[in-house]
Amino acid sequence: MNEFTNQPAGEPAAHDGSDVVSRVIRHHGVPYLSQWGSPGWVARIVEEDADPCDDPGWRASGFALPGDYRFWAKRLCGLTCFESALDYWGIAHAPRAGLLEDALRHGVYRMREDGGVDGLIYRPFAAWAEAAFGVRVEVMTDEGIETSAARVDADTLVIVSVSPEIRYPERANAHQGGHLILLHGHGDGGVWFHNPSGVAPYQADAWLPYETVARFHARRGMALTRTRHLRGKPA
């Protein structure tokens, strides 16, 4: 069941002698989606280099050709986060391959001459998300993780750029950015999130303290807000 909570946390907001209590702002029931076919296959794909098409769930993405799926699945973290938000808000959409086709037409991803891909590109994505789905997108640049997380409210989820190394937060990381995760709550000194390429226990409904996420965070992202005319639709 989808649910949004806004309630006092169990601990003071700061260890400064004050009695100010922080709040837990959290969406419950946000669907977790992996950027590959099945969440249970992510560890095998990222840790053991398993063929993503050995997972029978790959066909649910709508890709007709295995080669296209192999090429795109590892690049669609942002589109996967967006799909989770659309599903949570009950907004109809095509399967992932169809979403990608439309996103490509609107410049959200751009093919390079060297065969690589640029994207997800924030501002074309923002224009497409609002025109096609009625979701308002605010692009954030040079913003700390606590400020970005604080944007989560009853109608807003947040996508932030982190290093994919965040799937192993106990390890030292070499990079910041390059991967997108979906924030759906904050409180108790940290954030709740879905990582579309994560492995348990940091895959779905994961929580990490701000200082840990900050090591991986590139200080950019997007706030996704369900617009007024969509409120009250079944989720």
From TrEMBL:
Q: Report the InterPro entries cross-referenced here.
A: Peptidase_C39-like
Starting at the broadest rank, the lineage of the source organism is:
Bacteria, Pseudomonadati, Pseudomonadota, Betaproteobacteria, Burkholderiales
Residues annotated as domain Peptidase C39-like: 30-196
A Pfam family that the UniProt record links to this protein: Peptidase_C39_2
Q: Which domain of life is it from?
A: Bacteria
Spell out the protein name for this chain: Peptidase C39-like domain-containing protein
